[in-house]
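Supplementary Text 2. Reproducibility record for the structural model of the 321-residue chain.

All settings were left at their defaults, and a single model was retained for analysis rather than an ensemble. We include the record here because the model underlies the residue-level annotations in Supplementary Table 4.
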Amino acid sequence: MQITVAAETFRLAEAFTISRGSKTEAQVLTVRITEGDSTGRGECVPYARYGETLDSVTTEITALRPPFSRAELQSLLSPGAARNAVDCALWDLEAKRAGKRVWDLAGLPAPRPQITAYTLSLDTPENMQGSASKHSRRPLLKIKLGTADDMARLEAVRRGAPEPRIIVDANEGWSAEVYADLAPHLIRLGVALVEQPLPADEDDMLAEIDRPVPVCADESCHDRAGLFGLKGKYDAVNIKLDKTGGLTEALALKDQAMAEGYRIMVGCMVGSSLAMAPAVLLAQGAMVTDLDGPLLLAEDRPYALKFDKAGVHAPSAALWG
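Retained model, structure tokens:
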């Protein structure tokens, strides 16, 4: 077994802005694991919010000493981007060596297309209204917010796109007071879900205030160990492969979260189709699918995921799995 890791960059179609900053390109790490004549691939997006950089994640991966199994990997690396890329590459390798699709190996039904959210960057109300109008044909829009003056942005997006379902992602940018002020207007404007309104270490107030719109944990939950602290505060969990450390833990987190009564959102960092491909399996039956990373790119990988009116389709074997 041989492991290689390489940094790659994909240009974005336009600048992507959240409350923490802007980017014009997606910087990813691609892991390849070769065994015999077969090579499996996985992709991760190191995230500064979790103390990750391209260099630090590369160091984690190159420090591994193969061979090891997927089960062994879970204790060799902590949840995060490094384990995600390696875990997904191992799934891909197993599928290629077995001559089967990943969902067959996992004992899952063949994935069906899933309607995915399309994300509108944080911007001025006028620009967000224009962006919403441009994408008003899409059935589900996700709005990046996270400031104290977001009301005008919400109103502007709904004017630009009267019909689509809307979900809101505050990226930990609100206070409890701001959320409480906005909550009645979220209902009025038809918002279906609010993602991580408060900072992860200041979210206890969510258990003490009304949540008229379902609230989804993102930064507050990475893997199964994080579920314990969500009781009474959140109604849904956003599962991302770069947080769980790969598809293996993500599938287990989904099962446990559902058993404990949480609804499921499947999200992503801004990456290529290779990063999204395993998450399509995870998104089956989710309340919200947010796998629009490739739609935000100006360029993608060969054999990219197919997106159409039915949603995002399962990956071809040439891409992954």
